[in-house]
Backbone:
């Protein structure tokens, strides 16, 4: 049996500094967005030229680059998106991360050499969904964050696409791809990359305002072994809106423990690394999410929907009219740290620090602190400085190994062959080698010059020397040969990943695409079995066991089945049942409809909530969460009310506009 492929550590980048931080701290691949069609339009993102620069930087260090094109598309956006995808293929992007199955269909048909990954926005959460992803040409499926370890394991088979899961960073309260709350409140659709994050705002549940929709950040740093052993292909860190310091710190720590597990088959996270993860960003601590079970109340961030930092002490007094505070500290702080007072909500950079016996004096303040209130450090100057060293110096510590073979024989040109991986180049000098008249050029002389790879993206590997005795080679010629060879090798490595763009001739229907709320043959919903919008969990198990029996009953009454998820289209279609696609499929263009029809869907019913007006959204869920919430009403800051309903049969909570 061959060796198992090592798991991929996939890091986010919202800008070039983040990209470099990810690469230099050990990422195997980086994902980022371009200027269009990505679900983080508020990130800095990359122009096409910047993407190519990043792709080249990564490839010269053995790192892949994936581009997110993970928004839903209207009909008139399909061709521009396809053309942009073609440009990404040309410059050497390794894969696209796609939500809209219409775009995925066009890429597969028109740019067949381009690898595509199914985004978590496509709400894939079961093996049936992964099987559908394979049929549609995806090489990887990014599972919903709500999947348990057992559900993840059930999706992994050698004949199916790779599985990617999130291991660190922000959690969505709602299943990704199914949230309509932002669009309902302010017209900003998360499925179009413009989510306003209303889940991070306070709501009144009864008398008090709280944050019932704000989860803690996910951290699976303690469970990497379970994920590696179950066969996951890629571990993904969330954070395309985060700072380069965040990317550097989180990637560094996850790289460390992935490598430790492969080396020792076990590891224990140090208190220092655990503190660094909390310090760089956390919302009320971390959660393991749904990996082993419903985290219940431990899922929520509590009173801190933003970065909480770490506790360092409390206020015991003030000095000089409130300009400074007196504190008892449990942790050492340093000049330039940024601290926050949790009750008065003041944050300030420490520009004055005096250590007295048993207490500290900190400043400068603008407000009046309260005696006894907690002090938290939200930015560690030392941790950030450590991180900055990896992406601000302009020097890369991550290089590709290069083997060199030199051939020097009297009467023949000097020849140098450089090889990195499966790429090689050959350079020769015009002048022939001459016999030495005095001291000849030794093997050590040659090796010393060849090992000077300097600021190139290559690290010296093996050096092989084949030569006559008593030859003379000017050191300047050796340096020239090495320098030109490394430059040519660099261009060869970069160009190896680039392609000629395809000549696009897509047949995209120009017909108007609008929500088919009531197809002609679906006037009577009593003739249709309606599956829940999300079947993950026990409902999936029930359908697997009873699919044949259910299908026989449907055929006996000539009834249809309405499904909201990609996974259950083909299983019912193959059993001879007419399958109607529901709004959970998010069909917003004619090509997406064709993609679902290729799986066996015959028609649609309210093809996507995205196509409905605000008034028409009254009867569809704005959020669906795996988290169990009590039935009741939530009221936002503007007095808008929302109904909360928990369904014990599917173990899902649904939130509707009231």
Residues:
């Amino acid at each position: 049996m061959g060796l198992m492929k090592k798991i991929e550590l996939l890091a986010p980048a919202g800008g070039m500094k983040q990209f470099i931080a990810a690469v230099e701290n050990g990422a195997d691949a980086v994902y980022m967005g371009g200027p269009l069609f990505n679900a983080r339009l508020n990130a800095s993102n990359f122009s096409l030229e910047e993407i190519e620069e990043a792709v080249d930087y990564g490839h010269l260090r053995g790192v892949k680059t994936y581009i997110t094109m993970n928004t839903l598309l209207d009909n008139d956006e399909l061709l521009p998106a396809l053309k942009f995808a073609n440009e990404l293929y040309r410059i050497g992007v390794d894969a696209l991360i796609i939500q809209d199955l219409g775009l995925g269909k066009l890429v597969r048909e028109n740019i067949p050499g381009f690898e595509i990954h199914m985004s978590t926005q496509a709400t894939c959460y079961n093996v049936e969904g992964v099987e559908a992803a394979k049929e549609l040409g995806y090489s990887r499926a990014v599972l919903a964050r709500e999947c348990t370890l057992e559900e993840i394991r059930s999706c992994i088979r050698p004949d199916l696409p790779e599985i990617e899961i999130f291991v660190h960073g922000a959690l969505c309260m709602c299943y990704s791809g199914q949230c309509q709350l932002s669009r309902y409140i302010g017209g900003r659709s998360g499925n179009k990359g413009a989510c306003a994050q209303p889940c991070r705002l306070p709501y009144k549940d009864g008398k008090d305002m709280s944050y019932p929709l704000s989860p803690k950040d996910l951290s699976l740093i303690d469970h990497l072994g379970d994920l590696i052993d179950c066969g996951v292909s890629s571990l993904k860190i969330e954070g395309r809106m985060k700072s380069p310091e965040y990317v550097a710190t989180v990637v560094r720590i996850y790289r460390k423990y992935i490598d430790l597990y492969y080396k020792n088959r076990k590891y224990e996270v140090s208190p220092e690394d655990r503190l660094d993860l909390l310090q760089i960003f956390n919302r009320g601590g971390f959660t393991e999410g749904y990996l082993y079970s419903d985290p219940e109340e431990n899922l929520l961030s509590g009173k801190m929907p933003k970065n909480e930092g770490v506790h360092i002490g409390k206020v015991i007094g003030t000095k000089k009219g409130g300009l400074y505070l007196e504190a008892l500290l449990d942790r050492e702080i340093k000049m330039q740290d940024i601290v926050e007072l949790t009750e008065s909500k003041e944050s300030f950079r420490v520009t004055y620090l005096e250590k007295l016996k048993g207490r500290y004096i900190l400043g400068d303040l603008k407000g009046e602190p309260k005696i006894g209130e907690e002090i938290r450090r939200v930015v560690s100057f030392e941790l950030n400085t450590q991180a900055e060293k990896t992406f601000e110096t302009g020097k890369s510590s991550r290089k590709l190994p290069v083997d060199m073979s030199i051939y020097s024989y009297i009467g023949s040109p000097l020849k140098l062959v450089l090889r990195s991986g499966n790429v090689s180049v050959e350079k020769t000098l015009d002048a022939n080698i001459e016999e030495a008249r005095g001291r000849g050029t030794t093997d050590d002389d040659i090796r010393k010059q060849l090992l000077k790879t300097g600021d190139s993206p290559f690290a010296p590997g093996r050096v092989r020397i084949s030569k006559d005795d008593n030859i003379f080679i000017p050191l300047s010629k050796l340096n020239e040969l090495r320098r030109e060879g490394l430059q040519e090798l660099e261009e060869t490595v970069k160009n190896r990943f680039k392609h000629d763009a395809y000549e696009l001739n897509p047949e995209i229907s120009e017909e108007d695409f609008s929500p088919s709320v009531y197809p002609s043959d679906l006037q009577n919903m009593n003739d249709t079995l309606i599956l829940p919008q999300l079947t993950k969990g026990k409902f999936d198990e029930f359908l697997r066991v009873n699919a044949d029996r259910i299908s026989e009953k449907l055929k006996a009454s000539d009834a249809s089945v309405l499904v909201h998820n990609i996974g259950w289209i083909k299983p019912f279609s193959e059993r001879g049942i007419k399958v109607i696609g529901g709004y959970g499929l998010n069909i917003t263009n004619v090509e997406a409809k064709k993609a679902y029809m290729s799986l066996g869907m015959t028609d649609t019913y309210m093809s996507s909530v995205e196509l409905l007006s605000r008034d028409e959204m009254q009867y569809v869920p704005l959020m669906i969460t795996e988290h169990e919430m009590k039935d009741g009403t939530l009221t936002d800051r503007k007095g808008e009310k929302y109904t909360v309903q928990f369904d014990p049969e599917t173990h899902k909570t649904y939130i509707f506009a009231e």
